[in-house]
Amino acid sequence: MEVSCLTYLEYRAWRTFYTPLCALMLPYVAVLLITIAISGNFGFVRFNYTSIYVWILGLPFFALPSLGFATLMRHYNLPVISTVEDDDKGLPKILIVFGILLTLVLLFKLYRTLSHGFYLFGTEEFAEEFCGHGVWAHLRGMLIPILILALYYVRKKDLLLWLLIAMMFAIQFSYMVKGAIIITVVSAIAMKLYLGKMRFNLTLVLSVILGAVFVFYMIYMVIPLLGNDGEANMNLVEFIARHIIHYFTSGTLGWSYDIDQHIPDRNDFSYLVAPFVNIWNAIHGYETISPVNPIYWNTGITYTNVRTFFGTLSIYTSPVLFVTYTLVASTFIYFWKMLSVMTRNIYIHSILFYYIGLMAMGWFEFYLFHLSAIEVPLIALFYAWLARKGKEVSLG
C-alpha cells in the first residue's frame, strides 16, 4: 500500500516512472515477493518480516526531496519532463576514440595478466590483479559513462560502436563483478526508455531476464571453464540456477538473517562515507577502510554479506543519522534530476541514470559508499567538457 501510494505521488510529480524513488522501491518489492515465496523452502532460511520495517520507514523520507523539488519546479513554471539537445547526433567521435584507447590499454593489461599465469582466468584473484585496484581500477571506471552513452546511442548499423561495446563488456566480464555490468545496462535501458529511444514491452522484459541469466552463466560457468579447461555438466548448470536465486535474494535474506542474529555487524558511520574518509586517509598517509561488510551469513545455498540499501544504512547509523542521511542522499540525487530537466544535457542525464541504476540495485546492497558513486559522475562531467572541446575544434 505504501509503495502504491508513493508510486502514484511520484508519477504525478514527474510524469514518469523512471525516477530514483521508483527505481529504489519497485525492484525491491519484486525481489521481496520472490524472497517470501522461497524462504523456508529449497534449503533457504526463513524470512524475518521485521526486516521490512527499515524500508517502510526509509522510503517516505527518500520521497520527501523528490516531492519538494517537483513542487518547487511547478511553482516556478519549470518543466518536469526533460528532453535532450542534439539527441540525433550520436556519441561524439572524440569519446569513441577515447573509449577505444581506454579499451585497448585495458585489453593489453588483460593480456599481460593472462601471460603472467599467476592466477587462473575466471577467479576473483585474477580479476583483482587485472583491474581491481590502483590506476587500472580507475581506468575501468572511466569506461562506465562511455558504455552507458554508447548503449544509449547505438543503432543496428553502428558496427564500430557495437564493436566498442563488445570490447568494453569483455573487460567488465573479465573483472567478474555482476553488479557493475547490471548497473550499467539498467542505467542505459532506463535512460533510453525515459527519453523515448525504446519502448517498454514484453520483449524488453524477456530480453532483460535472459540477459541477466546470460551474465550469471558467463561469470560462473563459461569464463571459469575457459580459464581452467573444465567441463560443463548438469550439476554445474543446476548449481548456477540455484545461485541465481541466491543472488536475487541475498540482500533481503541477508538482512533478514542479520536481524535474527541481532545485527552483530553494527559499525561506525564513517563506513557510509568511506570514499571521503579514504581520500583523507590517503592524503595523510593513514590506512584506508573498506565499506564491504566482513560478516557473511549462509542463507541456504551459500554465503552473503549484503544487506539491501536501507538495511546497510541502518547498520551504520543511529535513527537520527538514518533519517538525515536518507534525506541528504535523496536531495543530492534529485538535484541531478532537476538539473537534467533544466539543462537538457545528455551527460547530466547519464549521471542521473547512473544513480538510478545504483538505486535499482537497492534490493541487493547500498552502493553509495563505493568510490565509483563519486568517480563515475565526475568522469561523465569530464566527458561533457571533452565533447564540447571536440565540437569547438571541429567547428573551428
Question: What does this 3D model show about the protein?
Answer:
It contains 15 helices and two strands. It is mainly alpha-helical and 396 residues long. A two-stranded antiparallel sheet has the order 1-2. Helix 1 (2-14) packs antiparallel against helix 2 (20-38). The protein is globular and about 60 Å long. The model has no long low-confidence stretch (mean pLDDT 91).
Summarize the SSE layout with pairings.
Layout: H1 2-14, H2 20-38, H3 53-75, H4 93-116, H5 124-131, H6 134-153, H7 159-175, H8 178-194, H9 202-228, H10 234-260, H11 274-284, E1 297-298, E2 303-304, H12 309-315, H13 319-343, H14 346-360, H15 372-395
Antiparallel strand pairs: 1-2
Helix pairs in contact: 1-2, 1-3, 2-10, 2-14, 3-13, 4-5, 4-6, 4-7, 6-7, 6-8, 6-15, 8-14, 9-10, 13-14, 14-15
In a few lines, what is going on in this structure?
The protein has 396 residues and is an all-alpha fold.
Key terms:
1% strand, globular, 2 strands, 396 residues, mainly alpha
Task: Please tally the helical runs, counting DSSP H or I stretches of 4 or more residues.
Answer: 15
- What series of H and E elements makes up the topology? HHHHHHHHHHHEEHHHH
Mean pLDDT: 91
Strand content: under 5%
Biggest sheet record: 2 strands, antiparallel
Name the quaternary structure: single chain
Tell me the structural class: mainly alpha
Task: Tell me roughly what share of residues is in helical segments.
Answer: 55-70%
Separation of termini?
58 Å
Q: Radius of gyration, Cα only, in angstroms?
A: 21 Å
**How is the largest sheet built, in terms of strand order?**
1-2
Q: Give the CA-based shape.
A: globular
Would you report the number of β strands? 2
Unreliable runs: none
